[in-house]
Structure formats: C-alpha cells, structure tokens
Design brief:
Blueprint (H helix, E strand, L loop, with lengths): L6 E7 L6 E6 L4 H11 L8 E5 L20 E6 L1 H11 L5 H14 L3 H9 L2 H15 L1 H4 L3 H19 L11 H12 L5 H17 L1 H10 L2 H8 L4 H17 L2 H4 L17 H6 L1 H12 L7 H15 L3 H4 L8 H15 L12 H14 L19 H13 L1 H12 L9 H15 L23 H20 L6 H17 L5 H9 L3 H14 L6 H28 L1 E4 L10 E6 L5 E7 L14 E4 L3 E6 L16 H6 E6 L3 E6 L3 H14 L7 H19 L29
Parallel strand pairs: 1-4
Antiparallel strand pairs: 1-2, 3-4, 5-6, 6-7, 7-8, 9-10, 10-11
Length: 742
C-alpha cells in the first residue's frame, strides 16, 4: 500500500546529535512539527527554533514553502529566523572587530533567505547597514592601514548583505540618502579599491538606477565616464561586466532629451555626466576602450558580458528611434536643404545656372528631372517620400551621410542608374528609404533589450557611426544585386528580399569588423543565394503524388515516436536554466533533468553554470511526473503575469513555460534559447501524452520524412545494406605519404 500523499520522510540534523529519521505530516502546523522535533532532543522553548534545508542554500522552511519538502530531504534544526536576526543585529554592533567581522560574514550568507531577510529588515537592519557604510568607514579610517584586510572584508560583507537584502524587493530604493549614494559612488571612483567592494558597489548603483527615478538623478551626478574607464581597462571581466551594466542602466533610464544630443559635439568625455549618453557613446574613446579591452581582449567573453554588450548595442541603436519616427515637414526649409545638398553633390553645383538667371519654370523642370534621376517617387516634391514612419527622417540622414562620406560611390550609383533605361534603373531614393526601414527591422530599433539575449555584433563597436556605415555597405550591395538580377522596377520587392537574405546570412557569421562584413557579402552574390536556395529546396523537397502521400502517412507515426524518444533523452540529459531577477541580473543558475525511468523531474540550484551533466543526487528537489497537471507557455505562465523590468518583451515571452502541479504550485522556466524551449515543451507534452506541436518538431518531422522516403525510393534491389557502420581502419605503420606544404 503506498504511503499517504501528505506524509514525507525526511532526515533532521542537530549539532552534536545523531540525525533523526522522521515522518512529517504536511497537514499538521509547522510549529507542532518543530515542537515534536525539539521534544525528541529535550530542547525547551521550541518557538525559538526552526527547520531549514541542510544543503548549501540553508533556506528556512515556512508554511508557504513546506510543500517543496520531498521524500529523502535532509533538514536541520536551527535557531528561528527572528532569533537569528535579533542576535546578528546585536553582534554586528559589537565593539570587537573580530566579532563584528564574523557577524557580517554570517549576515551576508543568511540574507539570501527571504524569511530571515524579512525579520532582519523588521529590526530596521537596512538602516543600520547604511549607517555603517556612511559612518563606519571614517570610524575605522585610522585602523585601515594596520588592519586593511580586516577592514576590506568587513566592508565587503556589509555591502554583500545589503545587496542580498535589497534583492528581495521588501524595501523601496527611494528611501536612501544622498550621503549613502555618495559613499557608494566613492568606492567606484577610487583608483585602488578591493575587487569585491568595487563589484558590489557597482551592483548597488545599477539597482538604484533601475529601481528609482530620483536615485537615477543622484547617481548620474556622482559618476562620470572618467571614473569608470579604468575599470573597463582592467583585466577582471566581472568588474568590466558590472561597469558596462551601470552604463546600460543609466542609459536605459536617461530622459529622452538627455539622450538625444549632438553626437559630434566636442564635450570632454572624461568630465561628461553619464546622463549625456548619446554624446558619450558616440565618442571614440569609450567605444575604442570597450573594443580593445573587452571585445578584443585575449580571453573568451562569458555569457553575462555578451548580454551586457548586446544591451549596450540595442540601446545605442535605439537612439535612432526618434529620427526613425520623425516625419519630414515639407515646409521646413532646413530639411529641404538636405535634399538640395543630395542633388548638388550628385550633379555638381558648378553646372547649375545662376539662381538669378533663367525662368522659375526652367529651374523647376531641371530639379524635377534631377530628382527623378536620384530615384525619388515624388519627383516634384521629394520631401513627401519621407513622411512615412518608419523610417522617417532617418533614411534622409543615411542618404546624406553616404553622399558626404562615400561621395565617389554615391555619385557612381546615381549617375550609373540615371544613364540606364527607365525600367532597369535602381532608384536610389526609394531604395535608401526601404533599405533603412529593413535595417531597422533587422536590428530591432526601438525595441527594449531582451533579458536573455547575448546576440551582440563586434563590428558595430568598430566605428563611431556604425549604423550609417552599415547602411553605406548595404546600399552598395543593393545596387550590385539589382544589376546581378537584371531587375526592373516591378522586381523591387524581390530585390529587397534577396538583399535581406544576404545581410542576414552575413550577420550570422558574426564578422569582427565592417570590412569583414563587406567581404562576407562579396561571397553572397545573387548567384550564390540561388544555389543556397536550390540546395535547401532539394533538401526540403515534398513529393505531392498520392502514393508518396500514402507512404508518408504510413511511416509518420514511426518518425514521431523517434522524435519523442529524442526529446525524452534530451530531458534525461537535463538543461541549465538561468534565474531571472527583475531588480538586477546575476549569474544564478538552476538545473532540471528527467530521471532515466521518465517518472521524476529532478531540479535544484547551482552556484555556477555546469560543465556537462549534473548528477541526479546533487539536485535537491523532485517532482513526480504523475503530479504534473498541465504545461503552459508564454503569457499564460504565472511568472510572465508579474510586472518587472524588461520582462514583458516578446523574446522572453517566447521562451517562457511553466509546469503546474498540485494546487497553486508551479515550476517556472525561461529557456536559454528557442531550441531548448522546443525540446522541453515537446518532451513535457510527450510525458503527458499530448501532441508535440513546436516548430522544431515540424521541421524534424519534415526532414526525417523526406530522408526516409528518399531512402525507400532508392533502387536498392540486390544491394545488402549493413546493419552496423563499417569498421574504422587501423592507423598506417608510417606517415611517409604525408606531404608538408611548409
């Protein structure tokens, strides 16, 4: 007879005593269970005790989380959170440096638990820590030289505890004083400071900016690029990551009028406040420092750094949104002058008649003819071409940049097309407008950064005007592809589709520079694109004759079973998921995998991203597959219904899924990428006996069906197909036949 559902068997430890094996009735109050445990060891005042997990997390058991206790869990009897908080509150105020240091170390560890954090905060613990940071440093200033290691550790543990306590979201960030902000900023501004103190100070500044508009203003006044540059020039990638995270946070929260500055101004970058983000990011010094000391450093870029670089890239391109969504005013003379300048550069101002000579009609006729050669749709008033948003005025900005900075190429394209027959000319104006719109879509200009994406492109950090240069390369590609396709005006959309494919394929190779991107495009000619398309079409060929369709229908269940087994095998291997936090992003991981018998999901927290599989016995928690009620995705997930910074964007929603079990219990996931999302949702649906409906399953089914059908249609009569692969031949006795080209 199976044990009752509400009974769990656990082991409970107590220092100095043998562990007890005990059955816990989940229907009984937790206080009654603790009293029973205390009575077994003859401990009085059971209200001063609590149970906590005996693993590395040391989290307290409460009425809210007690349902997470599974059979075989090891628990520990310990001091209650309220007692522990009271004792630590007193100990960190000790006059003994050693006692204070030990207390702060314990506080930094315990503050990760929300139950303890709530009790400590109730004692006004946050205020005590901020006072210690503000005044404690001066108090021990004289001792710093003779006790520097002790002082550094003490401040590090204090800041660590503060970060962990604030991370629970119990206390508002708006409550902190200017003195505290100045003190934290001073740790960042110092040329020589302990790495752990610097790291936590940067994390605090990032959280302040992201969570409070008032604190953003104050932090921005305290920090300048001049103070952050040395941290980017260092060799510690974690410090570099936190530094870029602070820049990103300030950039994200900067008011629009502070972002949109003249990107060619001469303001000294070293003394520039971080609120002037557009000016800063356009400066060669900061960009070149990130390129030299971060992107091209002689070490691999970890996931967190890649994410911060991606965020910086997105926020930089989002500066273009204002121009992208600004319509041209046909009556604005300054804007009309830009179009006149395009005409002047293309057709040479010296050839123009004197403004005072000739009739108005003659000049108007000449302008109309030239605007047609420039490829505008509206030959009479080209300003009307820029009234559509997107791309708005951004297209005109790109055209002017191309005309001024790549003048020879600009003139060649315009004159080359103006000398062709009408139906074969590539309209420069219309092409530039549509290309700008397309590039904005590819780079997702105007969208918030994804919380999980690491997709940054090194080449965009190699030039101060990277988007404009990107456009210049692509407009020349468009003209080249137009000629290769021998296109006419009716083929305009087809040409744009080919160009988009060329650009996307080149970007997937992650070129390290704009020149490398250009060379990649050279290898992706229209002929090459046709070959790639033909190859893909052959691989995905779908025979539509009735006998073939009947054959597909017959073998489809066998293929689906093969896909199902592959999905379940992947779930058995397991996946590392990142824990997302709306207050600040940290490298916190957890791992989940299916047991080999497909009956239990094992999961648990990890200190760092694992190398390879994580054994079942190292994962603390279990969830029987039989207890799973449903699998939900996207907006239906409980953790996607919560409002948080950067959580409501489409990319995160597309990677979110949750397992619902018991009553009001769930296990929430954010997949590392779309492939893992499909693997897990397919595998979980297969476990529940439901259809696998992901895009990956459809693609795998099409590919495997096509391969199987082609194999069955081969003429293999009298040819014996081996059951096992051929043996690998022995190594040769010598390698004299090898020719060394060097």
């Amino acid at each position: 007879m199976p044990p009752p559902v509400d009974i769990v068997k656990v082991a409970i430890e107590w220092p100095g005593a043998y562990p007890k094996l005990m059955e816990i009735d989940q229907k009984k109050p937790l206080s009654a269970i603790i009293k029973e445990v205390c009575d077994g060891w003859s401990l009085a005042n059971h209200e001063y005790f609590a149970l906590q997990h005996a693993d590395s997390s040391n989290f307290y058991i409460t009425e809210k989380n007690r349902n997470e206790i599974k059979n075989g869990t090891i628990l520990r009897l310990t001091t209650s959170p309220a007692q522990n908080a009271q004792q630590l509150h007193e100990r960190i105020q000790s006059s003994s440096m050693d006692a204070k240091l030990e207390a702060l170390k314990d506080l930094a560890s315990l503050s990760r638990d929300v139950t303890f954090a709530q009790e400590f905060i109730n004692l006004d613990g946050i205020s005590l820590l901020t006072q210690m940071v503000e005044s404690g440093t001066e108090r021990y200033q004289k001792l710093q030289k003779i006790m520097k290691p002790c002082f550094g550790d003490m401040l590090s543990f204090t800041l660590t505890a503060f970060v962990e306590l604030m991370d629970h979201g119990i206390v508002s960030w708006d409550t902190f004083s200017v003195a505290f902000i100045k003190k934290i900023a001073s740790f960042v501004n110092k040329s020589a400071v302990d790495i752990s103190i610097l790291q936590r100070s940067l994390a605090i500044l990032e959280s302040m900016v992201l969570n409070s508009h008032d604190l953003y203003q104050k932090v921005a006044q305290e920090i300048t690029i001049g103070q952050l540059i040395p941290h980017l020039q260092g060799t510690d990638q974690e410090i570099q990551t936190y530094t870029i995270a602070v820049i990103n946070a300030l950039f994200l929260k900067a008011p629009d009028e502070r972002r949109q500055l003249d990107v060619e101004s001469d303001t000294d970058i070293l003394d520039c406040p971080l609120t002037e983000m557009a000016n800063i990011l356009a400066q060669k010094q900061l960009r070149s420092i990130i390129l030299t000391h971060v992107i091209r450093a002689q070490r691999a870029i970890n996931n967190e750094m890649a994410h911060q670089l991606y965020v910086l890239q997105v926020l930089t391109f989002n500066l273009l949104e204002d121009r992208m969504m600004t319509k041209m005013d046909p009556q604005d003379q300054a804007q009309r002058d830009i179009i006149f300048e395009l005409r002047r550069i293309a057709f040479d101002a010296e050839s123009e008649p004197n403004n005072n000579s000739g009739s108005m009609e003659k000049r108007k006729s000449m302008y109309t003819r030239d605007y047609k050669k420039l490829g505008f749709i509206n030959h009479v008033n080209p300003a009307m071409d820029f009234t559509q948003t997107p791309p708005g005025m951004l297209a005109l900005d790109n055209m002017l940049y191309f005309a001024k900075h790549h003048q020879d190429a600009y003139i060649r394209i315009v004159l080359e097309n103006s000398s062709r027959e009408d139906k074969h000319e590539c309209p420069f104006g219309r092409s530039s407008i549509e290309l700008t719109k397309m590039l904005c879509e590819i780079l997702k200009v105007g969208e918030l950064p994804s919380e999980t994406c690491n997709d940054f492109h090194p080449m965009f950090f190699t030039h101060d005007r990277s988007f404009e240069e990107f456009f210049c390369i692509c407009i020349q590609l468009l003209n080249k592809t137009w000629k290769e396709m021998r296109a006419t005006s009716e083929d305009f959309n087809k040409v744009m589709q080919v160009v988009k494919e060329q650009v996307m394929r080149a970007l997937t190779t992650k070129p390290s520079s704009l020149d490398q991107f250009k060379s990649k495009l050279q290898n992706l000619s229209y002929t090459e694109i046709l070959k790639i398309r033909q190859s893909e079409r052959m691989n995905q060929e779908d025979f539509q004759s009735r006998p073939i369709l009947e054959l597909k229908e017959k073998i489809q269940p066998e293929i689906l079973e093969l896909i199902k087994q592959q999905r379940l095998n992947r779930l058995v291997e397991g996946t590392c998921f990142r824990k997302l936090n709306c207050r600040r992003r940290q490298d916190k991981f957890w791992y989940c995998r299916l047991s080999p018998n497909h009956k239990v999901l094992h999961y648990g927290d990890l200190e760092e991203s694992p190398q390879g599989e994580v054994p079942h016995d190292s994962l603390q928690d279990k969830l029987p597959v039989a207890d799973i009620k449903a699998v939900v995705t996207g907006k239906d997930c409980p953790h996607m219904k919560e409002k948080g910074a950067l959580k409501q964007n489409k990319e995160v929603l597309d990677l979110a899924f949750s397992i619902l079990y018991d009553s009001n219990c769930q296990l929430n996931f954010i997949a590392p990428d779309k492939h893992e999302y499909c693997i897990w949702t397919d595998g979980l649906n297969a476990l529940l006996g439901k259809d696998m409906v992901s895009d990956l399953t459809r693609n795998d089914l099409d590919t495997l069906l096509s391969m199987e059908i082609k194999l069955r249609l081969l003429d293999l009569e009298n040819i014996q197909i081996p059951d096992a692969p051929p043996p690998i031949p022995k190594e040769p006795s010598n390698y004299d036949f090898v020719y060394d080209c060097n």
